[in-house]
Predict the structure.
Amino acid sequence: MATTANNCAEHGGLAPAASLSEQIAEHLAREIITGRLGANARIQELRVADDLGVSRGSVREALLILESRHLIDLLPRRGAIVRAPRVRDARHRSLSPGPSRSAHRGR
């Protein structure tokens, strides 16, 4: 676990009180949100477990957390697939500074 904690800390840090599965979920969520794991990408349990030095059981629990947060879909015999961004996500991004489309329409 020390390896996982160090890896996670290097990528933005996590609250030390978070469970191992929650830490893994946060790490994977960051990968999805930053685009390192794109829409429809397959998340392989074994690869994540090996990369982070954790058990597959902990990774499975993390994937369930991500599914509950609507970041991935868990499909029978296919595993975990990153969901495509939704309109709600695009709206969130549009709140960033800069001109909006509606500002350009009126001109």
Summary: Helices lie at 2-10, 20-33, 45-52, 56-68, 87-93, 101-105. The first strand starts at residue 42 and ends at 43.
